[in-house]
Amino acid sequence: MNSSSSPSAEADDGARANEVRGAVRSTLQLGGSLMVTYAIALGIRALMPRYLGPEAFGYFNWSEAFAATFFVATNLGLETYIRKEVPVRPDHASDFFGTTMLLRLAMTLVLMVALALVLHHTGEPPEVQHLVQWFAVAQSLIVVNASMAALLHSKGKVAGLSVSNVITKIVWGGGLALMAAFGVGLQWLAVPMVLSEAVKLIISWKLAKEHLNLKFRIDLTETKKVMKACLPFFLTAAALACNGRTDMSLLGKLASKEEVGWYGGAFSIAGLTFLISPIFGWVLMPMMSRAAARSPQELSHLTRRSLEGVLAFTVPVMMAMVLGADLWVRIMCGPGFEPAALPLRVLSPIFVMAYVTMVSSIWLTMSNKEWWVTLAATMGAVVNPLLNLALIPWLYGRIGPSGGATATAMSMFLTEVIVTVLFLSRMGRNSFDRRSLVMVAKTAVVCGVCVVLDRVLLGAGMAPWPRLGLTATTYVVGVLGTGAVRPAELLQVVRMARQRGGNGGAPAEVAVPAAPTA
Fold first, then answer.
1. Which residue ranges traverse the bilayer (predicted)?
2. CA separation (Å) from 234 to 16, 71, 73, 168?
3. Quick check: pTM over 0.85?
4. What is the pLDDT of residues 201-225, one digit of tens each?
5. DSSP class of residue 517?
6. At 269, which helix (H) or strand (E)?
7. Is 180 left (phi over 0), alpha (psi -120 to 50) or beta?
8. Rounded Cα–Cα distance for residues 284 and 351 (Å)
Protein backbone atom coordinates (compact mmCIF):
# COMPACT_ATOMS: atom_id res chain seq x y z
CA MET A 1 0.00 0.00 0.00
CA ASN A 2 1.25 3.47 -0.85
CA SER A 3 2.58 5.24 2.24
CA SER A 4 0.61 8.38 1.38
CA SER A 5 -2.62 6.47 2.01
CA SER A 6 -1.49 4.66 5.17
CA PRO A 7 -3.31 5.29 8.45
CA SER A 8 -0.24 7.09 9.79
CA ALA A 9 -0.09 9.46 6.81
CA GLU A 10 -3.83 10.08 7.00
CA ALA A 11 -3.48 10.89 10.72
CA ASP A 12 -0.67 13.36 9.97
CA ASP A 13 -2.75 15.03 7.26
CA GLY A 14 -5.71 15.18 9.63
CA ALA A 15 -3.57 16.75 12.35
CA ARG A 16 -2.27 19.38 9.91
CA ALA A 17 -5.81 20.11 8.70
CA ASN A 18 -7.06 20.57 12.27
CA GLU A 19 -4.08 22.81 13.02
CA VAL A 20 -4.74 25.00 9.97
CA ARG A 21 -8.43 25.25 10.86
CA GLY A 22 -7.48 26.26 14.39
CA ALA A 23 -5.06 28.87 13.06
CA VAL A 24 -7.71 30.33 10.76
CA ARG A 25 -10.25 30.49 13.59
CA SER A 26 -7.68 32.16 15.83
CA THR A 27 -6.90 34.66 13.10
CA LEU A 28 -10.57 35.55 12.68
CA GLN A 29 -11.15 35.83 16.43
CA LEU A 30 -8.11 38.00 17.02
CA GLY A 31 -8.70 39.96 13.83
CA GLY A 32 -12.23 40.77 14.97
CA SER A 33 -10.99 42.05 18.31
CA LEU A 34 -8.30 44.07 16.53
CA MET A 35 -10.92 45.79 14.38
CA VAL A 36 -12.86 46.84 17.48
CA THR A 37 -9.80 47.97 19.44
CA TYR A 38 -8.38 49.89 16.47
CA ALA A 39 -11.71 51.67 16.00
CA ILE A 40 -11.65 52.77 19.65
CA ALA A 41 -8.01 53.82 19.38
CA LEU A 42 -8.67 55.88 16.26
CA GLY A 43 -11.55 57.63 17.99
CA ILE A 44 -9.41 58.50 21.00
CA ARG A 45 -6.53 59.65 18.80
CA ALA A 46 -8.94 62.03 17.11
CA LEU A 47 -10.26 63.27 20.48
CA MET A 48 -6.99 63.92 22.30
CA PRO A 49 -5.48 66.57 19.96
CA ARG A 50 -8.70 68.54 20.13
CA TYR A 51 -8.83 68.30 23.93
CA LEU A 52 -5.18 69.05 24.65
CA GLY A 53 -4.10 71.36 21.85
CA PRO A 54 -0.80 71.06 19.92
CA GLU A 55 1.71 71.69 22.73
CA ALA A 56 0.07 69.52 25.41
CA PHE A 57 -0.62 66.79 22.86
CA GLY A 58 3.07 66.86 21.96
CA TYR A 59 3.99 66.38 25.61
CA PHE A 60 1.48 63.53 25.84
CA ASN A 61 3.02 61.65 22.89
CA TRP A 62 6.58 62.41 23.97
CA SER A 63 5.90 61.10 27.49
CA GLU A 64 4.48 57.83 26.20
CA ALA A 65 7.37 57.30 23.78
CA PHE A 66 10.00 58.22 26.38
CA ALA A 67 8.60 55.78 28.93
CA ALA A 68 8.37 53.00 26.34
CA THR A 69 11.98 53.55 25.28
CA PHE A 70 13.17 53.61 28.89
CA PHE A 71 11.57 50.23 29.58
CA VAL A 72 12.87 48.41 26.50
CA ALA A 73 15.19 46.38 28.74
CA THR A 74 12.26 44.72 30.53
CA ASN A 75 11.26 43.01 27.28
CA LEU A 76 13.98 40.39 27.88
CA GLY A 77 13.25 38.88 24.44
CA LEU A 78 10.77 36.61 26.18
CA GLU A 79 7.86 36.95 23.76
CA THR A 80 9.73 35.48 20.81
CA TYR A 81 11.16 32.70 22.95
CA ILE A 82 7.68 31.78 24.17
CA ARG A 83 6.25 31.64 20.66
CA LYS A 84 9.14 29.46 19.54
CA GLU A 85 9.27 26.96 22.41
CA VAL A 86 5.93 26.86 24.24
CA PRO A 87 3.80 25.68 21.26
CA VAL A 88 5.69 22.37 21.28
CA ARG A 89 6.15 22.02 25.07
CA PRO A 90 3.47 23.94 26.98
CA ASP A 91 4.59 22.71 30.41
CA HIS A 92 7.89 24.54 29.93
CA ALA A 93 6.13 27.88 30.59
CA SER A 94 6.03 27.27 34.35
CA ASP A 95 9.80 26.67 34.38
CA PHE A 96 10.63 30.33 33.83
CA PHE A 97 7.45 32.36 34.29
CA GLY A 98 7.70 33.01 38.03
CA THR A 99 11.40 33.88 38.04
CA THR A 100 11.13 36.21 35.05
CA MET A 101 8.19 37.97 36.69
CA LEU A 102 10.31 38.70 39.77
CA LEU A 103 13.23 39.77 37.56
CA ARG A 104 11.00 42.21 35.71
CA LEU A 105 9.63 43.57 38.98
CA ALA A 106 13.14 44.26 40.25
CA MET A 107 14.13 45.90 36.97
CA THR A 108 10.98 48.03 37.06
CA LEU A 109 11.76 49.35 40.54
CA VAL A 110 15.31 50.27 39.53
CA LEU A 111 14.15 51.89 36.28
CA MET A 112 11.44 53.89 38.04
CA VAL A 113 14.05 55.44 40.34
CA ALA A 114 16.40 56.12 37.41
CA LEU A 115 13.53 57.61 35.41
CA ALA A 116 12.62 59.99 38.23
CA LEU A 117 16.23 61.17 38.48
CA VAL A 118 16.53 61.73 34.73
CA LEU A 119 13.27 63.68 34.60
CA HIS A 120 14.31 65.82 37.56
CA HIS A 121 17.69 66.73 36.06
CA THR A 122 16.28 67.46 32.61
CA GLY A 123 13.95 70.06 34.09
CA GLU A 124 10.68 68.77 32.69
CA PRO A 125 7.53 70.41 34.13
CA PRO A 126 6.10 68.59 37.18
CA GLU A 127 2.93 67.52 35.38
CA VAL A 128 5.00 66.00 32.57
CA GLN A 129 7.18 64.14 35.08
CA HIS A 130 4.07 62.67 36.67
CA LEU A 131 2.66 61.72 33.26
CA VAL A 132 5.87 59.93 32.27
CA GLN A 133 5.89 58.00 35.53
CA TRP A 134 2.29 56.86 35.02
CA PHE A 135 3.20 55.79 31.49
CA ALA A 136 6.18 53.90 32.94
CA VAL A 137 3.88 51.92 35.25
CA ALA A 138 1.64 51.20 32.28
CA GLN A 139 4.63 50.10 30.21
CA SER A 140 5.76 47.64 32.88
CA LEU A 141 2.29 46.04 32.77
CA ILE A 142 2.23 46.07 28.95
CA VAL A 143 5.47 44.05 28.83
CA VAL A 144 4.10 41.40 31.20
CA ASN A 145 0.79 41.26 29.35
CA ALA A 146 2.62 40.73 26.07
CA SER A 147 4.26 37.62 27.54
CA MET A 148 0.94 36.39 28.92
CA ALA A 149 -0.64 36.86 25.50
CA ALA A 150 2.24 35.01 23.85
CA LEU A 151 1.59 32.03 26.15
CA LEU A 152 -2.08 31.92 25.15
CA HIS A 153 -1.27 32.37 21.46
CA SER A 154 1.20 29.49 21.69
CA LYS A 155 -1.52 27.25 23.08
CA GLY A 156 -4.00 28.45 20.47
CA LYS A 157 -6.47 29.63 23.13
CA VAL A 158 -7.39 33.11 21.97
CA ALA A 159 -11.17 33.43 22.36
CA GLY A 160 -10.93 34.74 25.93
CA LEU A 161 -7.97 36.91 25.00
CA SER A 162 -9.93 38.47 22.13
CA VAL A 163 -12.72 39.44 24.54
CA SER A 164 -10.13 40.72 27.02
CA ASN A 165 -8.58 42.96 24.33
CA VAL A 166 -11.95 44.59 23.67
CA ILE A 167 -12.81 45.01 27.38
CA THR A 168 -9.50 46.60 28.28
CA LYS A 169 -9.57 48.91 25.27
CA ILE A 170 -13.02 50.09 26.34
CA VAL A 171 -11.64 50.76 29.84
CA TRP A 172 -8.80 52.78 28.33
CA GLY A 173 -10.87 54.68 25.78
CA GLY A 174 -13.79 55.27 28.12
CA GLY A 175 -11.47 56.49 30.86
CA LEU A 176 -9.78 59.01 28.58
CA ALA A 177 -13.12 60.21 27.23
CA LEU A 178 -14.41 60.77 30.77
CA MET A 179 -11.25 62.62 31.74
CA ALA A 180 -11.59 64.85 28.72
CA ALA A 181 -15.26 65.50 29.57
CA PHE A 182 -14.35 66.55 33.13
CA GLY A 183 -11.26 68.54 32.13
CA VAL A 184 -8.73 66.41 34.04
CA GLY A 185 -5.14 67.66 33.96
CA LEU A 186 -2.40 66.31 31.70
CA GLN A 187 -0.56 64.45 34.47
CA TRP A 188 -3.44 61.98 34.99
CA LEU A 189 -4.10 61.02 31.38
CA ALA A 190 -2.03 57.82 31.56
CA VAL A 191 -4.06 56.43 34.47
CA PRO A 192 -6.71 54.82 32.18
CA MET A 193 -3.92 52.92 30.43
CA VAL A 194 -2.62 51.66 33.80
CA LEU A 195 -6.12 50.51 34.79
CA SER A 196 -6.78 48.80 31.46
CA GLU A 197 -3.47 46.92 31.53
CA ALA A 198 -4.08 45.87 35.14
CA VAL A 199 -7.48 44.44 34.14
CA LYS A 200 -5.86 42.65 31.19
CA LEU A 201 -3.22 41.10 33.47
CA ILE A 202 -5.86 39.70 35.82
CA ILE A 203 -7.84 38.18 32.94
CA SER A 204 -4.72 36.82 31.20
CA TRP A 205 -3.46 35.18 34.40
CA LYS A 206 -6.76 33.37 34.88
CA LEU A 207 -6.79 32.25 31.22
CA ALA A 208 -3.18 31.03 31.41
CA LYS A 209 -3.88 29.00 34.56
CA GLU A 210 -6.91 27.46 32.88
CA HIS A 211 -5.40 26.62 29.49
CA LEU A 212 -1.73 26.03 30.30
CA ASN A 213 -1.94 25.05 33.97
CA LEU A 214 0.57 27.87 34.51
CA LYS A 215 2.26 27.79 37.91
CA PHE A 216 4.21 30.53 39.68
CA ARG A 217 7.43 28.90 40.84
CA ILE A 218 11.08 29.89 41.12
CA ASP A 219 13.59 27.90 39.05
CA LEU A 220 16.85 29.80 38.75
CA THR A 221 18.69 27.07 36.84
CA GLU A 222 16.07 26.77 34.12
CA THR A 223 15.56 30.53 33.92
CA LYS A 224 19.28 31.07 33.32
CA LYS A 225 19.05 28.74 30.32
CA VAL A 226 16.00 30.61 29.05
CA MET A 227 17.66 34.01 29.45
CA LYS A 228 20.67 32.79 27.49
CA ALA A 229 18.39 31.58 24.69
CA CYS A 230 16.50 34.92 24.80
CA LEU A 231 19.62 37.06 24.28
CA PRO A 232 19.36 37.36 20.46
CA PHE A 233 15.63 38.08 20.72
CA PHE A 234 16.28 40.80 23.30
CA LEU A 235 18.99 42.44 21.20
CA THR A 236 16.71 42.36 18.17
CA ALA A 237 13.86 44.02 20.09
CA ALA A 238 16.23 46.67 21.46
CA ALA A 239 17.66 47.43 18.02
CA LEU A 240 14.19 47.75 16.49
CA ALA A 241 13.09 50.04 19.32
CA CYS A 242 16.09 52.31 18.84
CA ASN A 243 15.65 52.30 15.06
CA GLY A 244 12.07 53.50 15.41
CA ARG A 245 12.93 56.48 17.65
CA THR A 246 15.83 58.20 15.92
CA ASP A 247 14.47 59.28 12.55
CA MET A 248 12.04 61.97 13.73
CA SER A 249 14.60 63.34 16.19
CA LEU A 250 17.17 63.74 13.41
CA LEU A 251 14.60 65.24 11.05
CA GLY A 252 13.66 67.87 13.61
CA LYS A 253 17.31 68.82 14.15
CA LEU A 254 18.49 68.76 10.53
CA ALA A 255 15.37 70.20 8.85
CA SER A 256 12.39 71.75 10.64
CA LYS A 257 9.50 70.84 12.91
CA GLU A 258 7.18 71.41 9.96
CA GLU A 259 8.98 68.64 8.09
CA VAL A 260 8.48 66.44 11.14
CA GLY A 261 4.76 67.20 10.94
CA TRP A 262 4.55 66.21 7.28
CA TYR A 263 6.53 63.04 7.88
CA GLY A 264 4.39 62.24 10.92
CA GLY A 265 1.24 62.68 8.84
CA ALA A 266 2.55 60.36 6.13
CA PHE A 267 3.73 57.81 8.66
CA SER A 268 0.42 57.82 10.51
CA ILE A 269 -1.38 56.94 7.27
CA ALA A 270 1.18 54.28 6.34
CA GLY A 271 0.94 52.87 9.87
CA LEU A 272 -2.72 51.99 9.29
CA THR A 273 -1.53 49.26 6.93
CA PHE A 274 -0.09 47.33 9.86
CA LEU A 275 -3.53 46.51 11.22
CA ILE A 276 -3.03 42.76 10.83
CA SER A 277 0.65 42.63 11.81
CA PRO A 278 -0.05 41.30 15.35
CA ILE A 279 -1.61 38.21 13.74
CA PHE A 280 1.85 37.11 12.61
CA GLY A 281 3.14 36.75 16.15
CA TRP A 282 -0.18 35.63 17.59
CA VAL A 283 -1.07 32.90 15.07
CA LEU A 284 1.55 32.29 12.38
CA MET A 285 4.57 31.98 14.69
CA PRO A 286 3.11 29.23 16.93
CA MET A 287 1.87 27.43 13.81
CA MET A 288 5.33 27.58 12.23
CA SER A 289 6.87 26.42 15.51
CA ARG A 290 4.81 23.24 15.38
CA ALA A 291 5.64 22.79 11.69
CA ALA A 292 9.36 23.13 12.47
CA ALA A 293 9.06 20.49 15.18
CA ARG A 294 7.71 18.05 12.59
CA SER A 295 10.20 18.70 9.78
CA PRO A 296 12.26 21.47 8.13
CA GLN A 297 10.52 20.69 4.83
CA GLU A 298 7.08 21.39 6.27
CA LEU A 299 8.35 24.64 7.78
CA SER A 300 9.71 25.78 4.41
CA HIS A 301 6.49 24.79 2.64
CA LEU A 302 4.39 26.78 5.12
CA THR A 303 6.76 29.75 4.82
CA ARG A 304 6.51 29.87 1.02
CA ARG A 305 2.73 29.72 1.06
CA SER A 306 2.61 32.36 3.81
CA LEU A 307 4.77 34.69 1.72
CA GLU A 308 2.39 34.20 -1.21
CA GLY A 309 -0.53 35.18 0.99
CA VAL A 310 1.37 38.21 2.31
CA LEU A 311 2.05 39.46 -1.21
CA ALA A 312 -1.55 38.86 -2.32
CA PHE A 313 -2.73 41.11 0.54
CA THR A 314 -0.04 43.78 0.73
CA VAL A 315 0.67 44.60 -2.91
CA PRO A 316 -2.83 45.96 -3.74
CA VAL A 317 -2.84 48.00 -0.52
CA MET A 318 0.56 49.42 -1.45
CA MET A 319 -0.68 50.30 -4.93
CA ALA A 320 -3.74 52.07 -3.49
CA MET A 321 -1.53 54.13 -1.18
CA VAL A 322 0.97 55.07 -3.91
CA LEU A 323 -1.61 56.02 -6.53
CA GLY A 324 -4.00 57.74 -4.11
CA ALA A 325 -1.47 59.43 -1.81
CA ASP A 326 -2.78 62.95 -2.43
CA LEU A 327 -6.35 61.88 -1.70
CA TRP A 328 -5.47 59.97 1.49
CA VAL A 329 -3.44 62.88 2.86
CA ARG A 330 -6.29 65.28 2.19
CA ILE A 331 -8.81 63.00 3.92
CA MET A 332 -6.69 61.93 6.92
CA CYS A 333 -4.59 65.03 7.63
CA GLY A 334 -6.49 68.00 6.23
CA PRO A 335 -5.23 71.35 4.88
CA GLY A 336 -1.58 72.18 5.26
CA PHE A 337 -0.38 68.59 4.93
CA GLU A 338 -0.32 68.41 1.11
CA PRO A 339 3.52 67.99 1.03
CA ALA A 340 3.09 64.71 2.96
CA ALA A 341 1.93 62.95 -0.23
CA LEU A 342 5.46 62.41 -1.58
CA PRO A 343 6.83 60.89 1.67
CA LEU A 344 3.74 58.67 1.79
CA ARG A 345 4.48 57.33 -1.68
CA VAL A 346 8.05 56.56 -0.63
CA LEU A 347 6.90 54.85 2.58
CA SER A 348 4.22 52.70 0.91
CA PRO A 349 6.49 49.90 -0.45
CA ILE A 350 7.90 49.47 3.05
CA PHE A 351 4.54 47.96 3.95
CA VAL A 352 5.16 45.02 1.59
CA MET A 353 8.77 44.51 2.64
CA ALA A 354 7.95 44.71 6.35
CA TYR A 355 5.45 41.87 6.10
CA VAL A 356 7.92 39.80 4.07
CA THR A 357 10.58 40.30 6.74
CA MET A 358 8.07 39.33 9.46
CA VAL A 359 7.52 35.93 7.83
CA SER A 360 11.22 35.57 7.02
CA SER A 361 12.28 36.36 10.58
CA ILE A 362 9.92 33.69 11.88
CA TRP A 363 11.50 31.10 9.54
CA LEU A 364 14.99 32.14 10.64
CA THR A 365 13.99 31.91 14.30
CA MET A 366 12.40 28.49 13.90
CA SER A 367 15.47 27.32 11.98
CA ASN A 368 17.68 28.33 14.93
CA LYS A 369 19.18 31.23 13.00
CA GLU A 370 17.93 33.90 15.38
CA TRP A 371 21.33 35.60 15.53
CA TRP A 372 20.93 36.39 11.83
CA VAL A 373 17.74 38.29 12.71
CA THR A 374 19.65 40.16 15.42
CA LEU A 375 22.45 41.01 13.00
CA ALA A 376 20.02 42.37 10.40
CA ALA A 377 18.07 44.41 12.98
CA THR A 378 21.30 45.85 14.41
CA MET A 379 22.54 46.73 10.95
CA GLY A 380 19.26 48.51 10.27
CA ALA A 381 19.59 50.46 13.53
CA VAL A 382 23.02 51.68 12.37
CA VAL A 383 22.27 52.27 8.68
CA ASN A 384 19.03 54.21 9.15
CA PRO A 385 20.45 57.18 11.13
CA LEU A 386 23.48 57.32 8.83
CA LEU A 387 21.22 57.56 5.80
CA ASN A 388 19.18 60.27 7.55
CA LEU A 389 22.33 62.26 8.28
CA ALA A 390 23.34 62.08 4.62
CA LEU A 391 19.99 62.49 2.86
CA ILE A 392 18.10 65.04 4.97
CA PRO A 393 20.44 68.03 4.35
CA TRP A 394 20.76 67.07 0.67
CA LEU A 395 17.06 66.68 -0.20
CA TYR A 396 15.87 69.40 2.18
CA GLY A 397 17.80 71.96 0.18
CA ARG A 398 16.83 70.62 -3.26
CA ILE A 399 13.20 69.54 -3.17
CA GLY A 400 11.82 72.30 -0.99
CA PRO A 401 8.73 71.56 1.13
CA SER A 402 8.70 67.88 2.18
CA GLY A 403 12.34 67.43 1.12
CA GLY A 404 13.43 66.54 4.64
CA ALA A 405 10.39 64.33 5.22
CA THR A 406 11.01 62.57 1.91
CA ALA A 407 14.66 62.01 2.88
CA THR A 408 13.60 60.38 6.14
CA ALA A 409 11.08 58.20 4.30
CA MET A 410 13.74 57.25 1.76
CA SER A 411 16.17 56.36 4.56
CA MET A 412 13.62 54.01 6.04
CA PHE A 413 12.86 52.55 2.60
CA LEU A 414 16.52 51.84 1.84
CA THR A 415 17.06 50.36 5.29
CA GLU A 416 14.10 48.04 4.80
CA VAL A 417 15.47 46.99 1.38
CA ILE A 418 18.80 46.04 2.97
CA VAL A 419 17.14 44.06 5.78
CA THR A 420 14.78 42.26 3.38
CA VAL A 421 17.63 41.29 1.06
CA LEU A 422 19.64 39.98 4.01
CA PHE A 423 16.74 37.86 5.23
CA LEU A 424 15.83 36.40 1.84
CA SER A 425 19.45 35.71 0.91
CA ARG A 426 19.91 33.75 4.14
CA MET A 427 16.73 31.78 3.52
CA GLY A 428 17.69 30.86 -0.04
CA ARG A 429 15.17 28.56 -1.70
CA ASN A 430 13.19 28.30 1.52
CA SER A 431 11.62 31.68 0.72
CA PHE A 432 10.33 31.35 -2.83
CA ASP A 433 9.85 28.41 -5.16
CA ARG A 434 8.96 28.44 -8.86
CA ARG A 435 5.25 28.91 -8.09
CA SER A 436 6.00 31.93 -5.87
CA LEU A 437 8.34 33.54 -8.39
CA VAL A 438 5.76 33.17 -11.17
CA MET A 439 3.20 34.86 -8.91
CA VAL A 440 5.62 37.73 -8.20
CA ALA A 441 6.37 38.20 -11.92
CA LYS A 442 2.69 38.23 -12.90
CA THR A 443 1.83 40.65 -10.09
CA ALA A 444 4.67 42.99 -11.11
CA VAL A 445 3.37 43.10 -14.70
CA VAL A 446 -0.16 43.89 -13.51
CA CYS A 447 1.18 46.65 -11.22
CA GLY A 448 3.08 48.18 -14.14
CA VAL A 449 -0.08 48.23 -16.27
CA CYS A 450 -2.02 49.88 -13.41
CA VAL A 451 0.61 52.61 -12.97
CA VAL A 452 0.53 53.43 -16.69
CA LEU A 453 -3.28 53.47 -16.69
CA ASP A 454 -3.34 55.74 -13.64
CA ARG A 455 -0.98 58.24 -15.27
CA VAL A 456 -3.09 58.28 -18.44
CA LEU A 457 -6.33 58.84 -16.49
CA LEU A 458 -4.67 61.52 -14.35
CA GLY A 459 -3.49 63.31 -17.49
CA ALA A 460 -7.02 63.14 -18.86
CA GLY A 461 -8.27 64.99 -15.79
CA MET A 462 -10.34 62.18 -14.28
CA ALA A 463 -11.47 62.75 -10.68
CA PRO A 464 -9.59 60.80 -7.96
CA TRP A 465 -12.32 58.36 -6.90
CA PRO A 466 -13.30 57.17 -10.43
CA ARG A 467 -9.62 56.99 -11.37
CA LEU A 468 -8.72 54.84 -8.36
CA GLY A 469 -11.83 52.70 -8.87
CA LEU A 470 -10.96 51.98 -12.50
CA THR A 471 -7.35 51.24 -11.62
CA ALA A 472 -8.41 48.93 -8.77
CA THR A 473 -10.76 47.07 -11.13
CA THR A 474 -7.92 46.67 -13.60
CA TYR A 475 -5.70 45.27 -10.86
CA VAL A 476 -8.29 42.73 -9.69
CA VAL A 477 -9.04 41.58 -13.23
CA GLY A 478 -5.32 41.38 -13.97
CA VAL A 479 -4.27 39.27 -10.98
CA LEU A 480 -7.25 36.95 -11.37
CA GLY A 481 -6.92 36.67 -15.14
CA THR A 482 -3.19 35.88 -15.02
CA GLY A 483 -3.57 33.48 -12.11
CA ALA A 484 -1.33 35.55 -9.84
CA VAL A 485 -4.06 35.17 -7.21
CA ARG A 486 -6.10 31.96 -7.20
CA PRO A 487 -9.70 32.32 -6.05
CA ALA A 488 -10.03 28.59 -5.36
CA GLU A 489 -7.35 28.81 -2.69
CA LEU A 490 -9.00 31.85 -1.10
CA LEU A 491 -12.31 29.94 -0.99
CA GLN A 492 -10.48 27.05 0.64
CA VAL A 493 -9.43 29.38 3.45
CA VAL A 494 -13.04 30.49 3.87
CA ARG A 495 -14.17 26.85 4.09
CA MET A 496 -11.52 26.17 6.71
CA ALA A 497 -12.72 29.16 8.71
CA ARG A 498 -16.24 27.72 8.81
CA GLN A 499 -15.07 24.37 10.13
CA ARG A 500 -15.34 23.62 13.82
CA GLY A 501 -12.27 21.99 15.20
CA GLY A 502 -12.40 19.54 18.06
CA ASN A 503 -15.88 18.20 17.35
CA GLY A 504 -15.00 15.32 15.14
CA GLY A 505 -15.29 17.19 11.86
CA ALA A 506 -13.68 15.19 9.11
CA PRO A 507 -10.33 16.75 8.35
CA ALA A 508 -10.31 15.22 4.91
CA GLU A 509 -12.85 17.82 3.83
CA VAL A 510 -10.03 20.37 3.79
CA ALA A 511 -7.22 19.49 1.45
CA VAL A 512 -3.99 20.46 3.16
CA PRO A 513 -1.06 19.81 0.84
CA ALA A 514 1.67 17.72 2.36
CA ALA A 515 5.05 19.30 2.78
CA PRO A 516 7.35 18.52 -0.13
CA THR A 517 10.07 16.01 0.55
CA ALA A 518 13.70 16.96 0.24
1. 30-48, 60-82, 102-119, 131-152, 266-285, 306-324, 344-364, 371-396, 402-424, 436-458, 470-488
2. 31, 12, 8, 27
3. no
4. 998 888 888 887 888 888 898 889 9
5. P
6. helix 257-271
7. alpha
8. 18
Between CA 335 and CA 332 the distance in angstroms is 10
pLDDT digits (tens, 9 = 90+) for 96-137: 888 999 999 999 999 999 988 888 887 778 888 888 899 899
For the segment 335-347, the average pLDDT, to the nearest whole number, is 85
Q: Are 125 and 60 in contact (CB under 8 A)?
A: no
The rounded distance, in Å, linking the Cα atoms of 36 and 168 is 11
83, 154 Cβ separation under 8 angstroms: yes
Do 366 and 299 touch, CB atoms closer than 8 A? yes
Whole-number Å distance between alpha carbons of 471 and 319? 9
> Looking at the predicted structure, is the pLDDT value of residue 515 above 60?
no
Residue 38, C-beta contacts closer than 8 angstroms, at least 6 positions apart: 275
Q: Around Cβ 390, how many Cβ atoms within 10 Å?
A: 12
| Cα dihedral 118→119→120→125 (10° resolution) | 160
* 201: amino acid identity, one letter: L
Cβ atoms 136, 115 nearer than 8 A: yes
- Rounded CA-CA distance 441/435 in Å is 10
Of 228, 279, 222, 276, nearest in space to 91 by CA: 222
Residues 6+ apart with CB under 8 A from 356: 307, 310, 311, 420, 423, 424
Residue 32 near residue 162, CB atoms below 8 Å: yes
- Cβ-defined contacts of 477-486 (< 8 Å, 24+): 478/445, 478/446, 478/449, 478/450, 479/312, 479/316, 479/442, 479/443, 479/446, 482/442, 482/445, 482/446, 483/442, 484/312, 484/439, 484/442, 484/443, 484/446, 485/312, 485/439
Q: What is the mean pLDDT of residues 151-166?
A: 74
